[in-house]
Structure formats: C-alpha cells, structure tokens
Amino acid sequence: MRHLLSIADLDAQAANALLDTADRLEQTLLGRQVRKLPTLRGRTVVTVFYENSTRTRVSFEIAGKWMSADVINVSIGASSVGKGESLRDTALTLAAAGADCVVVRHPASGAAHRLARWLADTGVAVVNAGDGTHEHPTQALLDAQTLRQRLGDLAGRRVAVVGDVLHSRVARSNVLLLTLLGARVVLVAPPTLLPSGVGSWPVEVSHDLDAVLGGVDAVMMLRVQAERMHGGFFPTAREYAVGYGLNQRRLDLLPEHAPVLHPGPMLRGMEIGSTVADSERALVTDQVRNGVHLRMAVLYHLLAGEEAE
C-alpha cells in the first residue's frame, strides 16, 4: 500500500488486512502499562489539518507515538500557509524536511490525491484524513472495525446511514467500504440532503427513518455539516430532529442487537438524543478507541515496508 486516499483504492482483502492488523495491535497493547511499540522508530509522521479536528487529529498523533514514530503537527494558523504558501509548496517543504508520511485534512475535495501526485517522486506516503465532501477512509475503516467487533462478519448485514449524506465524506467512504465487505446500506435523509447522483450508488434510499429502523443491524448517524451549507436544506433544527433525529422512541424501534454509531462531534438534541448518545447501545467512545488502533494499522502498512506485506 503506497497511500491511503480512498476506500476505492482497497479491495476486500486489503481492507480486511487493515482491520485484522488493528485488532492484533489492540491485543498487543492490552494490559501494557507503557503503550509503546518500536515498530516505526526512526520514521516521521507529519499531520497537516486545514480544517478543525479533535478525534482524527489526536488519534493519528497517538497512533504514531504509540508506534515510536516522531509525530509533528503543523498548525496551519502558525505556518507559512498564513502567508499565502500553496498546498503544493507546503507538501514539498515537508518532504524536503524529512517527512515519511503526511496526514492531510483539507476543505477541497481531491486535495489528498493532488498531494500524492506532487509527492510521487519523494517516497512520502499520504493519508487522506478528510477532503472536502469527498472521502474520509480511516473513519470508514474504524467504523467497520467497531461494527465487526459487535456484530461479527458484516456480510449480509443491513446498515442505515442517517442524516446529512450530501455533505458527508464519512457517508461516501462508509458506503464504499460496507458494500465492499458485503453489507447492505440504506441511506435515510430528507431529499434536500441526498446527492443528485445517489441513484447510481449501490444503496437503498429512504426518507422515512421510522420505517427503516426495525429492519437494520446498525445505525450510523451523521453530523449535520452547517459549515458546508449555503442555503436552507431543512426548515429548522427542531423539524430536522423530529424527522431524522435518533431519540429514545426510535432507539426502541431498533432490534436489540443493533448498535448506534456517530463520527462526532454530536449535535445532541438535534441529530441524537442525550439518552441515546449515553446509552450502552451507542458505540461512540468505542469508535474513538478503535480509531487509534486502526490508524496505527494504516501507518504500519504504509511505513513498515515488506514486513507489513
């Protein structure tokens, strides 16, 4: 694996290999007082986030440090980007400075792919930590790992992805990965929050959340991305919550085995009720925990060379 830019770059074998490696790393660290492996000693991982992040950014940094890599965070507000430096020049600067891997989040769809092309001759690996409304591959992988831990094999499972699909890179990556692993996906959203080409996606589509919940094995709630919305996509936050928020009444419609996921940050009271978010059915903290192990696995496969293969 040269880069991780999109779930579309993976086949089922490669995806399962990442999930299996994440599980093995979790077991290796279990019970250790010092959570440190020597695997990536001497390697340098640089995180460059042009958008705000807590979970993704922190978990990549922890993942690198737990594998003994040198992890450097580039603060965009205090970097030469503030002076007008282009993404290309920033990337080439980081490569020249000795980065082995660049983890990038950017508001422009396709930014990670451009970065990989610019760095093609340098040997630097690129990880897409979210590019615009395009993809967020490591989020989909950690979601699949979380579901696999709870449900076992995902083949034949039916998963509902609910909310702002139009602006969600998480939804796009999850549709690709879940279908790759044999699951069936149903997208649930108001018509205004579905992409225009959704009819060509390998999914079911519904506008009625209550009608879907009784027949799914898991629910993935999505964040309403107000920062990407220009215009009115729904009347009010209250009306969105009435139509598409996961409250206690709707949680009771789910089969008992079905968990609830959310990539965070959660808008409590709108996307998800507090009683649901804090219930045993919600695996939000499991997702965060798994995010560290999954991103350790990604760095391992990218940077450990032939040993990872």
Automatic annotation (TrEMBL):
Catalyzes the condensation of carbamoyl phosphate and aspartate to form carbamoyl aspartate and inorganic phosphate, the committed step in the de novo pyrimidine nucleotide biosynthesis pathway. Keywords: Pyrimidine biosynthesis, Transferase. It comes from Actinoalloteichus hoggarensis. It comes from the Bacteria. It is an enzyme of class 2 (transferase). Its EC number is 2.1.3.2. Belongs to the aspartate/ornithine carbamoyltransferase superfamily. ATCase family. Residues 156-302 form the Aspartate/ornithine carbamoyltransferase Asp/Orn-binding domain. SUPFAM superfamilies: Aspartate/ornithine carbamoyltransferase (SSF53671). Pfam families: OTCace, OTCace_N. Signal peptide: none annotated. PANTHER family: ASPARTATE CARBAMOYLTRANSFERASE (PTHR45753:SF6), ORNITHINE CARBAMOYLTRANSFERASE, MITOCHONDRIAL (PTHR45753). This is Aspartate carbamoyltransferase. Carbamoyl phosphate binds at residues 55-56, 105, 136, 139, 264-265. Pathway: Pyrimidine metabolism; UMP biosynthesis via de novo pathway; (S)-dihydroorotate from bicarbonate: step 2/3. GO terms for cellular component: cytosol.
